[in-house]
Structure formats: C-alpha cells, structure tokens
Amino acid sequence: MILPFTAGTSMDPVARLAQESLKDTLGQSVVVENIAGAATVIAGAETLKSPPDGHTMLMIANSFAANITLRTRTADWQRAFVPVVQATVVPHVLVAAPSLKTDWAGFLKRLRESGGSMTYGSPGIGTSPHLGAEHFLRLAGGKAVHAPYNGTAQLFVDLYAGRIDFALSNLPDVVQPIEEGKLTALAVTAEQRVRELPNVPTFAELGLPDLLSDSWFGIMVRRDTPAPAREALERAWLKALARPDVRERLQALSFTVLARPGAEFEKVIDRYVATYATIIKESGISVQQ
Q1: Within a domain: residue 57?
Q2: CA 283/CA 175 separation, integer angstroms
Q3: How confident is the model over 112-132, as a mean pLDDT?
Q4: Residue among 140, 134, 135 nearest 111 (CA)
Q5: Residue 104 DSSP class
Q6: Domain boundary among 188, 204, 230
Q7: Which of these, 45, 126, 168, 262, could form a disulfide with 83 (CB 3.0-4.6 Å)?
Q8: Which of the four pLDDT bands, split at 50, 70 and 90, describes residue 146?
Q9: Residues 103 and 183 occupy one common structural domain
C-alpha cells in the first residue's frame, strides 16, 4: 500500500489500523510504503509502474481530485485509476484569530465589507483547505487574500497572533487551540455538529450547505486491474472498516468512517474534480509543474 505523504501524517493511522485486518482477510501481509512528493504525483506514478494485479494499492486524498486540473502530468488519472473504497473523512473547521473578537454574523459582515483586505492561511497552494476557503468565499460573497504556508505549524503561529485573519483547518488540528482560547471556531463542514465541538454550528445550519471542504482518504488501484482482484480488495477494506476496534480508534482521532464502495467513491471523486476545476480556473490557481 503506497501512501503519498511522509510517515506520521494524518493518513498513516487509516492505513496502519486497517493493515492487520487486511492481512487476515487477504491471507497475506500488507506492507505500507510512504512515497512523498508533489502532492501524490510521485506515489501515483510509482503505482502505475506496478503490475495491474491488485497487489499495489494507492491511498489518496483530496489532492488526487485537485491534481486533475492543477497538473498536466496527472490530467488523465481518472482514466488511469479506479476507486476501491473511500475510507474516512475529517471535516474542516473555519477558525478566526481571537483578535477579531467576532462571531459568525460579525465575521461574515466584516468579510463582505472589507473589500478583500482580510487574509486567510492554508497549508499550501491547491490543498483542500485552500480550495475549500476559495469555495467558501464564493458562496459567502466575500473576498480575501490568500497566504500559503508550507504546512500548518507557522500558519497557526500567525493565526494565534492575528497576523492572518482566518483559515479552514482539519478538525483534529484545532480542537485544543479552540479549547485554550487561541482560536475562535465559527463553523464546521460536517453534515452534523461534531462531538468535539458541539457548540459550533455546521455550514449547512448557517445557510451554506453546498460548501465542499474536508479531508478524505481512499484507496485506488490501476484501472486495468482485473475485476476479481479489485473486488477482493474492496471487500477486504469494507470488512476492515467495519471492525469495532478499528472504527473506535479512528473515531478517537476525529475521523468519520465512511466505508463507501468503489462505485460510490467514484461519484464523490467526480464531484470534487468538477468543483475543484471551477474553483481553480476562476481563481487562477497554479502550481509549479
């Protein structure tokens, strides 16, 4: 199983917790290999070099959908890969610098009246928090300046200090800072309020149900993988994600377990590719190829 990010990132627990169950179901060991670089491009290319026999899986995130539009090298990857299962999702939380001293209504009013002078941070150009923030701005009728960071460490330092105004961030990363008063939580992208932040409303409650912003993980294989091999992997993953111990440990890490079969996951990917393409083109977003 190839993971496109470095060891220790949020993708790792999903792979590692499913690893033992996959071994039991498939009757063979599953080796997890981290191949980071270029937002899934290097890992995906390595997967495509492997034989299409079901022995090599690629774990993907939202960056797979963004790359269809962002990068020429990956423009045809929807045809090159086929989904096996959508495993988990983590909602995003809209957080503001405490120096703004605001609630949702005040934030929205300020955003719309600021003339684009407010700033928002993201962990990098083309990441799901970046594209989610751009989608939010369009739906909310506001403008803001994007401040891209290399990851979240310095982003949060600047957000705590009020050097940037707001950000969309993965739920697990902001629960503690919110509890400590370092950040103000305004809304969450989950379908329902989350147990970690029960007093924070969803975007749907606030009138923005169409916002597409979260971080999901799923499994792909080469599209020319024989159907029996792909279906065996799908069954093994669905069985792993149904185990109470796996679900409990993932939920403790703020993951929502989806366990969507490949056919359903393909529809999800299509939706994200289409939405991201519109956001990227309208915003003029580009990355180094």
Answers
A1: yes
A2: 30
A3: 96
A4: 140
A5: H
A6: 188
A7: 262
A8: very high
A9: yes
- Report pLDDT for 287: 82
Whole-model pTM: value is: 0.93
Torsion sign over Cα 194, 164, 150, 152: negative
DSSP code per residue over 156-204: HHHHHHTSS-EEEEEHHHHHHHHHTTSSEEEEE-SSS--TTSTTSPBTT
60 and 134 co-located in one domain: no
Q: What CATH number should be reported for the domain holding residue 133?
A: 3.40.190.10
Show the CA angle centred on residue 223, arms to residues 247 and 242, nearest 5°: 15
Give yes or no: residues 27 and 170 share one domain. Answer: no
pLDDT tens digits, 20-59: 889 988 888 999 999 987 778 899 999 999 999 999 999 9
Do 95 and 175 share a domain, yes or no? yes
